[in-house]
Design goal:
The complex is a heterodimer of chains A (about 120) and B (about 110). Chain A is mainly beta and about 120 residues long. Helices cover about 0% and strands about 50% of the residues of chain A. The chains are: A mainly beta (about 120), B mainly beta (about 110). At the A-B interface, β5 and β10 of A face β4, β5 and β10 of B.
């Protein structure tokens, strides 16, 4: 069974940092691209970042470029999101999602981890 | 970035109704579009990929159509478990972009 489990969320002050993790199981992690998607309280979904299976290709939303860094460790079946210079508008539930590739969609999602940026 | 304009933002419907949600891209995206369902407090769930292909395990009352800039998600006969928020997502290029969402509520 495919499972994605996020962790690392919490309360952080503006300007602070946080590192999210996503532990994958039930599939060959190194064969798939992965994504981070977030959802602010009461708002819609926002794509944040993508990383290819071998980390060769990385993309970011303009809203996080220069502040967030996506990475993965295929030996540990884990995906990460390093978030620096956090702002109040980064407050959201952060989901990791498996990527089937262009036009094939994001087929498995974790349960999400809440990041709250507040003083 | 490609803008995805989804409509309506909300709708009220009854069990058994036919429901249609549309998504318009600001430029052509071939058929590189997916539809997702999200229930409160839960992660999104992929319903349709490549604009019209039904994801495994998704009931056949869900269907998608369109290509280029205009896309449609149709629920042929609304069921109680279908009351949720629906999003389109273009994966034609980066940054990927979601529509604003359509909340389907009980009439």
């Amino acid at each position: 069974e495919v499972q994605l489990v996020e962790s690392g969320g919490g309360l952080v002050k503006p300007g602070g940092s946080l590192r999210l993790s996503c532990a994958a199981s039930g599939f060959t992690f190194s064969n798939y691209g992965m994504n981070w998607v977030r959802q602010a309280p009461g708002k819609g979904l926002e794509w944040v970042s993508s990383i290819s299976d071998s980390s060769s290709y990385i993309y970011y939303a303009d809203s996080v470029k220069g502040r967030f860094t996506i990475s993965r460790d295929n030996a540990k079946n884990s995906l990460y999101l390093q978030m620096n210079s956090l702002r109040a508008e980064d407050t959201a539930v952060y989901y990791c999602a498996r990527d089937l590739g262009p036009y094939l969609g994001l087929d498995y999602w974790g349960q999400g981890t809440l990041v709250t940026v507040s003083s | 970035a490609i803008q995805m304009t989804q409509s309506p933002s909300s709708l009220s419907a009854s069990v058994g109704d036919r429901v249609t949600i549309t998504c318009r891209a600001s430029q052509g995206i071939r058929n590189d579009l997916g539809w997702y369902q999200q229930k409160p407090g839960k992660a999104p769930n992929l319903l349709i990929y490549a604009a019209s292909s039904l994801q495994s395990g998704v009931p056949s009352r869900f269907s998608g159509s369109g290509s280029g800039t205009d896309f449609t998600l149709t629920i042929s006969s609304l069921q109680p478990e279908d009351f949720a928020t629906y999003y389109c997502l273009q994966d034609y290029n980066y940054p990927r972009t979601f529509g604003q969402g359509t909340k389907v509520e009980i009439k």
